[in-house]
Amino acid sequence: MHPNKYITFSFDDCEIYDRVLCDMFRRYGMKATFFLISDQLGFRCDFHRYGEDTVVERVAPEELKETYAGMEIASHTANHRCPVDDLENAVVKSAQYLSDLCGYKVEGMAYPGGQYTPEHVTELKRLGIQYARTVQVTHDFAVPREWLAWDPTCKYDDDHIMELADQFLEYQGEEPAVFHIYGHSYELTRKEKGCSFDDFERLLLKLSGREDIVYATNIEIVRRLKELR
Ligand SMILES: [Zn+2]
Question: Is the pTM of this model over 0.85?
Answer without folding.
Answer: yes
